[in-house]
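Materials and Methods. Structural model of Helix-turn-helix domain-containing protein. The 215-residue sequence of Helix-turn-helix domain-containing protein from Rotaria socialis was retrieved and submitted for structure prediction as follows.
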Amino acid sequence: MGLAFTQTLANVYMFEWEQPLVEYQQLLDERYGRCIDDDFMATNLPRDQIIAKLDKVHNSDPNIRITYTVKSAVDFLDVAIENNDRQLKTVVFQKPSAEPYVLPYTSDHPHHVHLNIPYADLLRVARLCSNVEDFEIERINIEMSLLLNGYPPKSIRKQFHRFFDLNNTLPVLKQLDAESYQQLHQKLLYQLFSIPLGHESSDDPRCYGEICHGS
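The predicted structure was written out as tokens:
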């Protein structure tokens, strides 16, 4: 398992290593993110310039070896990201081997735990899916998974309704209203990063030519 502080030390090391890349992206007003040893970039640079920059970073420290992918669609953590006509489209990424498993309804857990699972699952996919059609596909997948794990249909419907009611977006549940869904999607994203609505960046963060994923 290693020492307790190993991951913290690795994060400090990676933080120092990535600074030239972070500053480079900031200079171009483009996006960069990292989760432990997975990196993500969105850029409008030509492909050859992107690869040259990544190769330079790759060779900057003999202790760090990276592999990267540069194309119009990549998987990053649990998100599949696609450049769709220079707009970034996001959906839930499911590993091919993933099973439709959630905590069984018959498990010996407090009842409120089972009640919160449908809400939490909808919350996750509403943050990850950038359009209402993909969200609806994931909502159906969640419903099927809950049914397979013994959740009563009446309870599922009630908790789904609770999610949309509390977020003032019942038109999404009843009519797949795209405008209401975009309001929900944006609100949940800004809540996640504690950014007040109206204070987001003035440029469009989804308008990019290439997407890079490194690890």
